[in-house]
Amino acid sequence: MKCPGKFKAQLHASSMGKTANEEIYVVKNLERSLLGRKAAMVLKLIMQVDNVNKNARVFEKYPELFTGLGRMKDEHSYSISLKEDVKPFAVTVPRKVPLPLYKETKTKKELEKIRKQESCRKSRDRPNGALP
Question: How many domains does the chain divide into?
Answer without folding.
Answer: 1
